[in-house]
Amino acid sequence: GELSAAAAAEVFGPAETLRIAELRGRVFERVPDSGSSYVACGAEQVATLLRDDLVVAVLNGPGECVVSGSVAALAGLERRLTALGIDHRRIAVPGAVHSPLLDPFLDEYRALVASFGPRPARLPLVSNVTGKRLTEAEATDPGYWARQLRSTVLFDDCLETAARNGAALVDAGPGQGLRSLAQGLAGRRPGVSAHAVMGGGRA
Fold first, then answer.
1. Are residues 86 and 39 in the same domain?
2. Can you tell me where the transmembrane regions are (predicted)?
């Protein structure tokens, strides 16, 4: 995601990026009995169904999002969604990504990023936190990268910003999940196209 893009733009060096990614993975695993679920409805509708520690973790598009929180709270949400006939599925990711349950670990994460001295991006980047062009102040602020770990990912806004600035939308990962989201934007913005580097199977 944004961390890989930051590495490509030389905000972090390769070894630094691996250290940050390793800690990121460990942070997610430190939140026991938590997880995330895909929900086929927009943020406004799902917000009326959230209880306990649940939050919208990712805004994929106008009609889909990801919700994170404790396993018990997610189970309750999934029962409510099923009763309403709204499609949903649990996502195979460790922990409640992009949620307040990560707050106890943000200082450690911020300190690691600060120890590397993040640098201004040498390529244009789009921020998952704001959905806008990443500024130099954000790129070089360890606090920004801690917020990026915990904040809602504004993925659809990021696609809009990239497309508005003439960027090609390319899914470089295994599968075509991100491409399908980008195709949703392409359907709303004539002239925008989305491509995948790899096929539908895992690489």
1. yes
2. none
Show the domain range for 143: 2-28+100-167
Which residue type sits at 16?
A: E
Q: Using the predicted structure, report yes or no on whether residue 191 has a pLDDT greater than 60.
A: no
Same domain, 60 and 47: yes
Report the number of distinct structural domains present in the chain.
3
Do residues 40 and 13 share a domain? Answer: no
Instruction: Write the DSSP string, 26-86.
Output: HHHHTSTTEEEEEESS-HHHHHTT--TT-EEEEEEETTEEEEEEEHHHHHHHHHHHHHHT-
For residues 104 and 148, state if they share a domain: yes
Residue 87: CA count within 13 A, CB half-sphere: 4
CA of 46: how far to CAs of 12, 51, 71, 97, in Å?
A: 36, 10, 17, 17
> Residue 162: enclosing H or E segment and its boundaries?
helix 155-164
Q: Residue 175, Cβ neighbours under 10 Å: how many? A: 15
Q: Whole-angstrom Cα distance, residue 31 to residue 76?
A: 19
Query: What's the CA gap between 72 and 89, in Å, rounded?
Result: 15
| pTM for the whole structure | 0.85
Q: Are residues 162 and 104 in the same domain?
A: yes
Listed in sequence order, the residues at least 6 apart from 114 whose beta carbon sits closer than 8 Å to its beta carbon are 142
For residue range 43-73, what is the model confidence (pLDDT) as tens digits? 899 999 999 899 999 998 888 999 999 999 9
